[in-house]
Specification:
- It is globular, with a radius of gyration of 29 Å.
- A hairpin with a 2-residue loop joins strand 1 and strand 2.
- It has a domain of 112 residues.
- The N terminus is likely disordered.
- It is built from 7 helices and 3 strands.
- 41% of the residues lie in helices and 6% in strands.
- The chain is mostly helical.
- The longest helix has 25 residues.
Length: 191
């Protein structure tokens, strides 16, 4: 018998003994060195964790770009205390003129359940990318709600929507679309 073959039963016996002893220590209240910690996703989030995640989502989701006056112009250098209070800047196009709402006032009017239902089904006019909000998980939308609520109410309501054909007061962005191709125009591509 080779040394390798004779060592195999001994190694197997030693391994079994260690497993049994490890189980006895764990049952005796001693920490089990082989225990694997729970993954981060399985840990409970604290309320401050949820608010911090909401702040992160607002920041990277571009919410401030429209819902915080001057945010884009100042390259994001706006104090958090001024975030999400709406903007007087209008977005004018074939749909009329829309304004980014004051989310801080809006969230004060809604319960979390109402926000989740509203944001999960939101379909609005341009330029709001409502499809990105609908694509978020319920937990992400709840985190946004908790963050915005943590800021408290501030500012005034945004100007009301203006229907097509009305020129908005300044300031506003105007989206100019190309004219539709003439009926029956050729579809040959140019090289």
């Amino acid at each position: 018998m080779s040394n390798r073959a004779s060592a195999l039963p001994l190694l197997s016996c030693l391994l079994s003994s260690l497993l049994i002893l490890g189980g006895c220590q764990a049952r005796a209240g001693k920490p089990d060195a082989t225990a694997v910690p729970a993954p981060p996703s399985a840990r409970m989030e604290t309320a401050s964790d949820v608010v911090a995640r909401g702040e992160y989502l607002v920041r990277v989701g571009g919410c401030n770009d429209c819902h915080t006056a001057g945010y884009a112009e100042r390259q994001g250098e706006v104090p958090t205390a001024q975030w999400l209070a709406g903007s007087p800047l209008g977005y004018h196009g074939p749909w009329g003129t829309t304004y980014a709402s004051n989310l801080r006032l809006r969230m004060q009017e809604m319960s979390e359940a109402q926000w989740l239902a509203y944001s999960g089904n939101l379909r609005t006019r341009p330029i709001m990318p409502d499809f990105t909000l609908r694509a978020m998980s319920e937990a992400d939308r709840a985190a946004i709600y908790q963050f915005v609520r943590s800021l408290g109410p501030a500012g005034e309501a945004a100007p009301a929507y203006l229907p097509p054909g009305q020129t908005p007061p300044a300031p506003y962005f105007s989206l100019v679309l190309p004219e539709a191709p003439a009926q029956g125009a050729g579809t040959a591509s140019r090289n």
